[in-house]
Amino acid sequence: MCDVAEISGKVRRRWITIYMAFRYGRWSLRRLLYSSVVFISSFIVLYNFWFVIDLLPWNPRVDHWCQQEKVSDYILQSEFDEMTVVTMFLDLGVFKKGEQRFAYHSPYKYRTWMRVFGRLANRVVAYIENENDVQLFKEIRSCLPPSLTKIVKVDRNSLPSFKHLPAIRKIYSRPSYPKHYPNTVYAEYSCAMHAKYDVLELSAIENHFETPYFAWLDIGLFRNLDGTDFPLFKLVPPDKFHPERIGFSQVWPQDPVLPPEVIMKQKIVWVSGSMVLATQEYMLNFTRDYKLAVKELLEQGLSNSDQEVINAMYTAKMRKPHYIKIKPYLCHQGQLGLYGSDSRYFCLGYVCKNAWERRVPQSPLVKRS
Q1: Which of 13, 17, 87, 307 could serve as a FRET partner for 168 with CA atoms 20 to 30 Å apart?
Q2: Percentage of residues in the chain having pLDDT higher than 70
Q3: Whole-model pTM?
Q4: How many other β-carbons are positioned within 10 Å of the β-carbon of residue 80?
Q5: Tens of pLDDT along 262-300?
């Protein structure tokens, strides 16, 4: 009995020692579990910051495709319906875009999307603020003839739309004004959206490439092509595009009787601002009407992005008799390879790309021998 009691006591003491070590010691189960949770959480946060938000301090790699391929001569020839593509990049830092937890956009992300312009054979006018981004865009376009690209270094404070910055900040600072990221939170974002029409107007006035058509193109419209082996391409107006219309992608059907206040405060979108297409004359008329509409809405204490402004412009309350008619383009799920919200917001860009591909179906690149 003594041997059994002694063995039992030793086992009990050993168990207590092991239990106390795991519970309170350096490698306790609690500490192991806590360390695992911290490690996994940190990994998830770092992964999202580096690979989802793209918080990277350097420029993305640029594909110098002309080292292996050359351009067929015909794609560089001017078309009868040639369009000048206008774009702009202003570094707004990191900002939240949407309501999801890691729905942030960073400058690196936009610089990555910018690479698609390296295979866009249109005449391009790019308004860029930062010298580093000027050099990046030059490198991206370096495989195309220099005559196809004009880079304008711009100061955001010189753009008319940024004169509205104090008024917009005042509106967004009101606690009662609805908060939609980034539209009604970051005043600089709203100003940048309005500034599209500043540079569109300037480009149409100068008409550097003497083209009949002009198009605004968001840096990220063709983002899905980046990182894929897509051929050189051009954008031309869709078949039967009416020269007295202005083209947009349709996001949702319009309700013209909605009050502008409801549209601006509830972020109700009719057409996408990712691409705007018109002839020189009608682009000038539209940009001037747009800027007057922005002022009119600001006087009423209303602000949002360009998409809401355009919807408000064409309501029964705000629409003027001389406003240019909008031609909306609507893509269905799967059409032109577009799915989800891309089929609504990016439709016109892909319709213009498809119009070129139907006109010239063969690949415009050939391998160098």
Answers
A1: 87
A2: 84
A3: 0.85
A4: 6
A5: 999 999 999 999 999 999 999 999 999 999 999 999 999
